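wait is this the right file?? whatever heres the structure
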């Protein structure tokens, strides 16, 4: 098992910090790295790990795989916590935000009332969606829905006896949606449950593509009409800060998983300006991983794949800007050491593994099923891509309220509970 993706709850963090697997070759994870996205309040949180009866020897026998915190939650924090910090510091932006979103809230509140909702449906032809508490995407979607009906808004506000939007307020909302659109689309993509789009290897290309888009947005300031340039810079700065470990290619598991997605291979590599590892280093990591494989059998991958939409979603063009992730404390030394000791000589590709990797990298096809033609790489692919890039699908799977809330189900055995969870997971696929 390569790792576990969980939500960013402090209880999970504490368990993985104490019982995580140790590896002498694994670099220590900085507390401020990509996955450190929440502050743990030690005074308020219940200390789950204390147990006076457990001695050190018995504790050491429990090990958990490497812990990756949910990237979707991290992106949500950029759109919520980091955005709130921005408008706290920028009085002008705060004033514009407050004025625009107050009127949005008035409209959403009206949509919850039967009489007002009827008026909204008569004028717009549909009701208005209200943002959810747990999903930032819903706020973005709700604002976009309002802007789509911009021509009818004055009539609607008049019928609802509300003060209509000013032109500057609509300009701010348009800037907000324009800037947040790449973030919202990336969140939707990472939280999806499509069979061939939910591998762990999609995380690195998604983040690199996202930061590439924000580099371009910051470079073209004339695009914005009413403060969007401040929001774009905030998104870019916090993407670099929160995902520093991944953007520097410092996380081997994420890098290997990405290279073994036929859609990407090294296609994303050129937009990383200061990578910790070279391409030859990464090839060496894959070869080393192949040597550690066992002889387990792996199921055949699905032949179904839609690469057209993926090509439109990802942006790896470097015609204008390059990604410049911050260099971590030990990155320079690690890069020097890895270059000296880990590179794969181009002339020595006689081994079976090296030849297979070379054939794979030169293969022009990009459908996911071609990995089946490379038996060794397929095993590595499954090992490193089994993790999901987001914990959203797991959270939906383990929403147990409908399973155990019934009076006759609160005493389920482990076996029956497992059967019900699997039935729930397969329901969408087969029914």
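ok assuming it is, sequence goes like this
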């Amino acid at each position: 098992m390569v790792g576990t993706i969980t939500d960013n709850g402090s209880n999970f963090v504490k368990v993985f910090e104490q019982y995580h697997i140790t590896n002498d070759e694994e670099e220590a994870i900085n507390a401020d790295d990509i996955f450190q996205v929440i502050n743990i309040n030690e005074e308020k949180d219940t200390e789950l790990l204390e147990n006076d009866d457990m001695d050190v020897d018995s504790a050491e026998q429990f090990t958990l795989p490497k812990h990756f915190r949910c990237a979707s939650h991290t992106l949500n924090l950029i759109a919520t916590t980091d955005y709130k910090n921005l408008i706290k510091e920028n009085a002008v932006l705060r004033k514009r935000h407050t004025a625009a979103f107050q009127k949005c809230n008035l409209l959403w509140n009206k949509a919850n009332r039967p009489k007002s909702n009827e008026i909204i449906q008569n004028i717009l032809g549909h009701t208005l969606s209200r943002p959810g508490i747990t999903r930032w995407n819903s706020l973005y979607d709700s604002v976009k829905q309002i802007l789509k009906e911009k021509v009818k808004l004055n009539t609607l506000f008049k019928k609802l006896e509300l003060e209509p939007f000013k032109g500057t307020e609509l300009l701010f909302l348009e800037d907000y949606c324009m800037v947040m659109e790449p973030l919202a689309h990336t969140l939707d993509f990472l939280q999806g449950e499509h069979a061939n789009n939910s591998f762990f290897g999609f995380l690195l290309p998604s983040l690199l593509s996202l930061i590439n888009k924000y580099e371009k947005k910051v470079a073209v300031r004339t695009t914005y009409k009413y403060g969007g340039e401040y929001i774009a810079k905030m998104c870019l700065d916090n993407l670099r800060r929160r995902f520093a470990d991944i953007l520097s290619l410092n996380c081997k598991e994420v890098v290997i998983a990405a290279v073994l997605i036929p859609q990407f291979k090294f296609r994303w590599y050129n937009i990383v300006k200061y990578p910790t590892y070279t391409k030859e280093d990464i090839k060496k990591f894959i070869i080393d991983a192949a040597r550690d494989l066992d002889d387990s059998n792996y199921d055949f991958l699905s032949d179904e794949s839609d690469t057209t939409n993926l090509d439109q979603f990802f942006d790896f063009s470097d015609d204008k800007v390059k990604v410049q992730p911050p260099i971590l404390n030990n990155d320079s030394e690690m890069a020097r050491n890895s270059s000296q000791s880990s590179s794969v000589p181009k002339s020595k590709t006689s081994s079976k593994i090296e030849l297979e990797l070379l054939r794979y990298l030169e293969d022009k096809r990009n459908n996911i099923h071609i990995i089946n033609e490379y038996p060794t790489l397929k095993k590595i692919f499954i090992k490193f891509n089994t993790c999901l890039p987001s914990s959203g699908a797991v959270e939906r799977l383990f929403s147990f309220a409908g399973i155990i809330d019934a009076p006759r189900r609160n005493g389920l055995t482990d076996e029956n509970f497992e059967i019900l969870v699997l039935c729930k997971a397969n329901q969408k696929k087969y029914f």
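The chain has 20 helices and two strands. so i think its the right one actually
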